[in-house]
Amino acid sequence: MYTVGELLRQWRHRRGLSQLDLAIAADVSARHVSLVETGKSNPSADMILRLAEQLGVPLRERNRLLLAAGFAPRYARRPLDGDALKAAWDAIARVLRAHEPYPALVVDRGWNIVMTNRAIDPFLANVAPDLLRPPVNMVRLGLDPRGFAPRIVNLAEVRSLLRTRIARQLAAAPDPGLTALYEELLAPGGENVRHPAGSEIAIPMIFRFGERELRLFSTTTTFGTPLDITLDEVTIESYYPADAESAAYFTSAGSGAGT
């Protein structure tokens, strides 16, 4: 079991900072940072959180730092659909509804789908039922041959993009479950993917439905200043048409993916 000083040093190394860098950012002395890391000084809970803030430590891991120092956890982890987070749930639901007729969904830190809007439903047609049993994992849904994979024209490119995003996520905050998902579905296999340049505003995901191709790019939205672990770990993934033909498909009356 690591001490709080050892954990803080690990996070500092992960962020590529020197003790002086961290000290300047947190407005403390480099000597104090050194004493905390070596266990020669017992930091207060407020000092731990100040250093954690400058290191960009996720709320879940800030609780771990506090526990290692003998303090009670500071951040709760409440269900998104519970009474305590009702305002946040309602806000997310409004964002998803407002994005229609384009698809949008919410995922947690393990890429499990928490909520979707109605525009997602047609994409789930013909997906194997076991892939739709909760928790539905977005990465597995996208890459499994019984999920979206047969419909994604640029599957190798999409896999490469997911690999980059999740590798970056793991570098920022290691997670055993996400590591297992990465090793299962995204471990590099020697493929050499070249991303388009020039004409695209973003690398699209290209879906094939019959004779039609839909080109979509995505944006992500997170809560700016969450004080709850659940809110700290959810992301809204919103998809937009990348060309006029795809936009017309979604906005035309009675359209439905898979028809």
Automatic annotation (TrEMBL):
PROSITE patterns: HTH_CROC1. One of its GO terms (molecular function) is DNA binding. Residues 8-62 form the HTH cro/C1-type domain. InterPro entries: Cro/C1-type_HTH, Lambda_DNA-bd_dom_sf, MLTR_LBD. This is Transcriptional regulator with XRE-family HTH domain. It comes from Sphaerisporangium rubeum.
